[in-house]
Amino acid sequence: MVEVTMYQVRVERGEKFWLVYVAGVDRWTQAKRFSEVEDTARDLVAVMDDVDPESIELTVEVSLPDLANQRLEHARQLREAATRANAEAAEETRAAVHTLIEDSGLSQQEVADVLTLSKQRVSQLVNG
Question: What is the per-residue pLDDT across 32-50, written as a single tens digit (0 to 9) for each?
Answer without folding.
Answer: 999 999 999 999 999 999 9
